[in-house]
Amino acid sequence: MRLRKISGAVVRRLPLYLRVLEEASRDGDKELMSSQELGERAGVSPALVRKDLAWFGEFGKQGVGYDVNNLKMELRRILHLDRDIPIALVGVGSLGHALARYFRRRYATDPGFQLNIVALFDADPAKQGEVIDGLTVEAPDKIREVSRELSLRMAIIAVPADAAQDVVDQCVDAGIHLLLNFAPVKLRVPDGVHLVNADLSLELQRLAYYMRD
Amino acid sequence: MRLRKISGAVVRRLPLYLRVLEEASRDGDKELMSSQELGERAGVSPALVRKDLAWFGEFGKQGVGYDVNNLKMELRRILHLDRDIPIALVGVGSLGHALARYFRRRYATDPGFQLNIVALFDADPAKQGEVIDGLTVEAPDKIREVSRELSLRMAIIAVPADAAQDVVDQCVDAGIHLLLNFAPVKLRVPDGVHLVNADLSLELQRLAYYMRD
Q1: Which end of chain B is more exposed for a tag (fewer CB within 10 A), N or C?
Q2: What's the mean pLDDT in B192-212?
Q3: Domain's final residue, options B29, B50, B78
Q4: Chain B interface includes A102 (CB < 8 A)
Q5: Which chain A residues are closer than 8 Å to B109 by Cβ?
Q6: Cβ contacts of residue A21 below 8 Å, gap of 6+?
């Protein structure tokens, strides 16, 4: 059973820990890792590492550290990354197109990367039928049908701001409840749907605050 | 004088408020906006809006609200977005290439968007000399020279993970102290350098946590 009360901040750090463990086991020289080292590599305090992981079980041994392979597998399981996750991408303009190629290449070359874009959609009739990296771009009114067929639960939204809410509504109707949104707009989703905003312009704008004159 | 103690969480919300105000003034029908409405549109509580803005001065009037145009200009000034900001982009693989086109198109078409990519770099000799949207791709050893010439303070890093630390060091040496990093790796920067990680894979992975079986 999932523990519903685990905060978003904890969940946000789990993939960071997983990445550190994957790097360590790729380098091959690490069988054990202390919370001190895991924290240092992930950029958080050792106490926070221990506290975060304690939500999910008892993984480390006092004075010995974490078994790298074991903790890696546990984190994969907790994050549902112990299986392939099929993803839809909606909007294959310049950004969406690049995201599709970027993530598909990552999936094809990195055995530790389970996120697999398997369906592309675009509202522009001129783009429908186009083949990108082996996938044919479909009309958004196919989202429901394709989602059912491919058991889609996750989608990347890369459409213009004024089209994003409609696309999100279509995805939610189709049973897609995990959304990564690149459109520079605030979107409404019903309870039970998780939306992460990756608004790249906002990131640049907040960096600009720290500009020295 | 800058207030050094303002937290990153406050700074992160300022561009959100600015976006809400820009949408409102684009729609044209809004001269005043309450903290209630600003908060609702930005997805935070009205109390937090008032608290965040109070760090920077007294902008609203009790019972009247904020003057949309005035607050917009103040936020632009606070974020240094009252002028154009020239940006370097390092790494024009599929993601970097798309980011360059995406942000340059945004700059060209959105008068409220001041972030302007003006220089491209790539370590691959096959890419050097290539022209992307009017900009010629240069070798990374030109970063210092170009930075001085164009007064660069901000860069987008879109190189592979194993090249990212070297590129960041070169940028920092060249006086670039604001960095948006897309490489899936934790990077070290000296004090006074601000680095924001936009690791798109981590965002997908944390979404996967919420997958329903």
Answers
A1: N
A2: 92
A3: B78
A4: yes
A5: none
A6: A33, A38, A66, A68, A71, A72, A75
**B10-56 pLDDT per residue, tens:** 999 999 999 999 988 887 768 999 999 999 988 899 999 999 999 99
Query: Chain B within 8 Å of A10 (Cβ-Cβ)?
Result: no
Distance from CA of A115 to the nearest CA of B (A): 8
Residues of B within 8 A of A78 (CB-CB) are 209
Instruction: Return the DSSP state at A66.
Output: E
d(CA A181, CA A165): 10
Continuous segment of H or E residues that includes residue A189: none
- Do A55 and A95 belong together in one domain? no
Range of the domain at B134: 85-203
- Rounded to the nearest angstrom, the gap between the alpha carbon of residue B20 and the centroid of all alpha carbons in its chain is 16
A108 in contact with B at a CB cutoff of 8 Å? no
Task: Write out pLDDT tens, residues B90-135.
Answer: 999 988 998 998 899 889 988 888 999 999 999 999 999 999 999 9
Among candidates B78, B154, B143, B170, which has minimal Cα distance to B115?
Answer: B154
β-sheet bridge partners, residue A178: A154, A194
pLDDT in tens, B4-18: 578 988 999 999 999
Q: How many helices (H) and strands (E) does chain B have?
A: 8, 10
10 Å Cβ neighbour count for B183? 23
The H-assigned helical ranges of chain B are 8-27, 35-42, 46-54, 68-78, 94-109, 143-150, 161-173, 200-208
User: pTM of the prediction?
Assistant: 0.84
ipTM field: 0.91
- B132 CB neighbour count, 10 Å cutoff: 18
CB-based contacts of B6-12 (< 8 A; 24+ apart in sequence) = B6/B55, B10/B52, B10/B55, B11/A206, B11/A209, B11/A210, B12/A202, B12/A206
CATH number, position A178: 3.40.50.720
Listed residues A60, A78, A96: the one ending a domain = A78
Cβ pairs bridging A and B (under 8 Å): 160
